[in-house]
Amino acid sequence: MAIISFKSDSTTLILNGQVISDLITGDILELAPSNNDTARVYGANHAVNVQKSAVADVYTLKFRVMKNSDSDIFLNTQLNLPTPVIFEGSIKERFMKNGTEAVENFKLSSGSFITRPTHSKNNVDGNGQVEYTIECFASRMI
User: How far apart are CA 125 and CA 128, in angstroms?
Assistant: First the structure.
């Protein structure tokens, strides 16, 4: 499946009203569809039944933030609550169209963490990053 990539330098990620502002500079956010758009059942003589999949709009969102930053503290707090947190939010990426700045917007709904985050350190400057993965419904707003 294709992955939609957003440059962290031109993208705003909002989850439950919180701007995730500590994205890794020069990095990307990845939004990947988890399921097929349609389900197909084949029959005799080339017959086919095509139906819209009920989970067609489910995406996996992966993004990385600076370890121990305000965004990391917010996300880690949400992750460690006794009941799963449901995320609502958006991804907004600025771009140029015909010399004018415009914004592409994806609405995120009913999201939740699907894995524990990964942690890594940069071997050049020692800065750490944490990668979070959320599964959610996403729809592109044009």
Answer: 9
Residue from 58, 56, 27, 26 nearest 40 by CA? 56
* 83: CB partners within 8 A, 6+ apart: none
3-state DSSP assignment of residue 86: coil
Contact 75/65 with Cβ under 8 angstroms?
yes
Number of domains the chain contains:
1
Residue 45 located in a structural domain: no
Per-residue pLDDT of the chain in tens (142 residues, 90 and over written 9): 578 898 999 999 999 999 999 999 889 999 999 888 898 899 999 999 999 988 889 999 999 999 999 999 999 999 999 999 999 999 999 888 888 888 899 999 999 999 999 888 765 566 789 999 999 999 998 7
Q: How far apart are CA 52 and CA 34, in angstroms?
A: 14
> Which residue range forms the structural domain that includes residue 71?
4-36+55-141
Contact 117, 133 (CB under 8 A): yes
Whichever domain contains 105, its CATH number is: 2.30.110
Q: 44 in a domain, yes or no?
A: no
